[in-house]
Specification:
Blueprint: H1 18-26, E1 31-34, H2 41-46, H3 48-68, E2 73-80, H4 103-118, E3 124-131, E4 133-135, H5 148-157, E5 174-176, H6 177-189
Parallel strand pairs: 1-2, 2-3, 4-5
Length: 196
């Protein structure tokens, strides 16, 4: 839950809805965090055009509306670590060549490249936050195959059996939704960001 703060407003809906953009402009919002996305990789593979509309075109249309109205703001886009493809276990930096392996990752990468192209223009700042696998909390996902970690945690709490496939030596990076919220809160309170 977001602590009550008169400076934070939660708008539910698609970033592609023109009314949301107009409301942000009329209220002179100076910082916007886009948490709206379709995150199902299988859905993206089967519905590439629809995924493009949701994850790329809606964001580009929204940003175009801000630019046309010369609305100065910081715009935070949530990306994914997988948009760079299969990376080594060690940390990577911006010099690492992007090689998305899925349609979903490609679309996330496209919007990040678009943000880089317009960052610093028209009084606009574009910031991409690449997250690993987020777990915890409640989620209104597009499909039922998301939130596996949450389901496994619930099974463990209920002392139900948990199946492990393969040899169990797989690893993934996870981050709790409250840590994501704290990160976003800290980032949005900064006054200066590096370019690109």
């Amino acid at each position: 839950k977001i602590q009550k703060n008169q400076n934070i407003h939660v708008l539910k809906g698609s970033i592609g809805e023109e009314e949301i953009g107009k409301r942000l402009i009329s209220e002179n919002v100076d910082c916007f965090v886009n948490l709206y996305a379709q995150t199902d990789i299988l859905f993206a593979e089967r519905n590439a055009n629809l995924d493009f509309q949701i994850n790329v075109l809606s964001v580009v249309n929204f940003l175009s509306l801000l630019i046309q109205n010369r609305h100065q703001c910081n715009f935070f886009q949530i990306g994914t670590v997988t948009q760079f493809g299969l990376t080594p276990p060690s940390p990577i930096d911006e010099s690492y060549e992007s090689n998305p392996e899925t349609i979903f990752d490609l679309h996330k990468n496209l919007i990040e490249e678009y943000l880089k192209a317009i960052d610093g223009k028209y009084g606009f700042r574009g910031i991409s936050i690449r997250l690993s696998n987020v777990y915890g909390g409640e989620s209104a996902q597009f499909s039922g195959n998301r939130g596996v970690v949450n389901r496994v945690i619930e099974l463990a709490k209920a002392k139900n059996r948990i199946s492990v496939y393969g040899d169990g030596h797989y690893y993934r990076n996870y981050i709790h939704v409250l840590d994501v919220a704290k990160c976003i809160q800290k980032l949005t309170s900064l006054s200066d960001f590096p370019s690109n």
